[in-house]
Input
Amino acid sequence: MHPFSFATTAQILCESGASLRLAELCHERGARRVLIVTDPGITRLGLLEPLLPGFSRAGMNVRIFDQVLADPPEAVVLAAVAQARELQAELVIGFGGGSSMDVAKLVALLAHPECGQALSEIYGVGNARGRRLPLIQVPTTAGTGSEVTPIAIVTTGETTKMGVVSPLLLPDLALLDADLTLGLPPAVTAATGIDAMVHAIEAYTSALKKNPLSDLLAREALRLLAANLDKVVQNGSNREARQAMLLGACLAGQAFANAPVAAVHALAYPLGGHFHIPHGLSNALVLPQVLAFNAPVAAPLYAELAPLVLGERLRAGSAAAQTEQLIEALAAFSQRSGLPTRLRDAGVSEAMLPTLAADAMLQQRLLVNNPREMNEQQALAIYQAAY
Output
């Protein structure tokens, strides 16, 4: 057996309605001043309203930073850190999608009274030092898995993103409450669900750090997600299926936090950077083509995953044949959900494909995890096939 290391969030609370106890959970951790990091959409939908009275009753000072944008730029992170310092926050809550949770991680680190580092100093792997404030993550989409990953992604230029990777970013508690996801529109539900599936698949075929714990989490994640995605897209108020999706996304997050993602993400990031396509959708757009590219090397592993997605519909055959069935089944999720399935349908211009391929090559931290080596020409061919 290859040596491996596995780290994850200290506690996971998986329970519909548990977010109503958020103040109590902060109180248990001795916090009197709490900053909630979220986005304007959450405030507009009133998702925080039912939780806030609990903080007043407990005599706690709670403040809301709700200016997080998708693909959050550095300025947003720094504004949230400034608000946490002004409040002298003793605990940070990330409440929302991956962007809000990523910003909350960085706030918990940079707003700690003993933190002497600037945001620009902690980009990369293992550059963050010291301690962070207690951190609770509450996802409102079943997709990113950010509540159990040691990674935060920040937009640093017009089209470029940088990551902070450090075990310090792993939260103290991930709270999975399906009630917060009941109102998610079908398109967002589908895209975030496919994003979570990509996390599971790429963790299972991760070239360098594939390990037995990530494998079992990835398999169970994929089983839960594949069995419930159609249900939640068709009926968003199915609480049981919503809870299964949240757990599936969380397990997939635990898997890829320890066996990192690869070429699907490497090719998806430039689509987000240049065309502001939501992360889950950009993954879905390139997923079938990347899996087909990897198949000559990774078909035996894809064939192990195929029964989890197809169940009794899986036809007997070689690993290559079962991989083809898996790719078709994954592509069909997008079609059934009404998501765009071609780059051209998502507003990508053909003239930009060479630029996207060049940008994808900058994602070497991801490409090293791909089961098959990929060069710029091959990346361009994948974008062309997806166009």
